[in-house]
Specification:
By secondary structure, the chain is of the alpha/beta class. About 35% of the residues lie in helices and about 20% in strands. The chain binds adenosine-5'-diphosphate and (4-amino-2-methylpyrimidin-5-yl)methyl dihydrogen phosphate (MP5).
Length: about 270
């Protein structure tokens, strides 16, 4: 029996390697989980933006899910880009069969500003998928959509995190402060306690894929058996190092740099 833990991502692709499935698999690998992937949409994108999107036929998404679920134990999984209601419905049907933590990155808009999910799918995500999650990880614009209010201060962030758990029934909420001013402060509400994770803001435009990397790291750590707080703490350390080591690849928002993050883990 091997001690290796598996992590599965269900998401869209990024051929330029910075976000989506590619970022998730790189993160799983760096964190020594065995990475697996279900592709929902093939996205032609790079550091400057999204050029076109091809949705994988629903039946093929189902076959990919069945192939993995029927054969391999899944210790944790995450979802990223799920573009439309039909895909969401399929995922809502299939994933309860997976007895493992579920981290949802409610991807709506890429760092470049391009929209990645259909407008009518947002409500479905909030109403049908959120209650299935162990943790949802919205950035500020995504959290604003989920609660239907503007978020400007850390107090607003805390209120939003509480609402997402108590009103919309997410298992826990981690709201990421990358889009606010000042230090990069994220708030985790686990249904009981409000936790705060803070890092110095790094002066860089190379933030393509930060959200994907962060949620993939959390999923990997949960799959390795860490409790939620500890998984987020390790993942925050990992994503901050990946941003600090990012580099100006391409002419737009460069990617975070996973392989330069081989740093010692923080003491819990
Ligand atoms: N410039 C930055 N310096 C340090 N941390 C950052 C920076 N930008 C984002 N982060 C952190 O990266 C993680 C991803 O956040 P964010 O960029 O808001 O997500 P998304 O990619 O979904 O928009 C969070 O932990 C956030 O605090
Ligand atoms: C397929 C896919 N999924 C997600 C993102 C969001 O990336 P970011 O972390 O930069 O917001 C993306 N650009 N492409």
């Amino acid at each position: 029996m091997t001690a290796v833990k598996t992590a599965l991502t269900i998401a869209g692709t990024d051929p330029s390697g910075g976000a989506g499935i590619q970022a998730d698999l790189k993160t799983f690998q760096e964190l020594q989980s065995y990475g697996m992937s279900i592709i929902t949409s093939v996205v032609a994108q790079n550091t400057t933006g999204v050029q076109s999107i091809h949705h994988v036929p629903l039946e093929m998404i189902e076959h990919q899910l069945d192939a993995v679920i029927s054969d391999i134990p899944i210790h944790a999984f995450k979802t990223g880009m799920i573009a439309n209601i039909e895909m969401m419905r399929l995922i809502a049907e299939k994933t309860p069969k997976i007895d493992a933590p579920y981290v949802m990155d409610p991807v709506m808009v890429a760092t470049s500003g391009d929209t990645l999910i259909e407008a009518n799918a947002r409500n479905f995500l909030r109403e049908q998928l959120l209650p299935l999650t162990t943790l949802v990880t919205p950035n500020i614009p995504e959290a604003e959509f989920l609660i239907g209010e503007k978020i400007e201060t850390i107090d607003d962030v805390k209120l939003a995190a509480a609402l997402i758990v108590e009103k919309f029934d997410a298992g826990a909420a981690l709201i990421k402060g990358g889009h606010l001013k000042g230090d990069a402060i994220d708030i985790l509400y686990d249904g009981n306690v409000m936790h705060r994770f803070s890092a110095k803001r790094i002066d860089t435009k190379n933030t393509h894929g930060t959200g994907c990397t962060y949620s993939a790291a959390i999923a990997a750590f949960l799959g390795q058996g860490l409790p939620l707080y500890n998984a987020v703490r390790q993942a925050k350390h990992f994503v901050t190092a990946a941003i600090a080591n990012s580099f100006p690849l391409g002419s737009g928002h460069g990617p975070t740099n996973h392989w330069a993050t081989r740093v010692e883990k923080v003491k819990q």
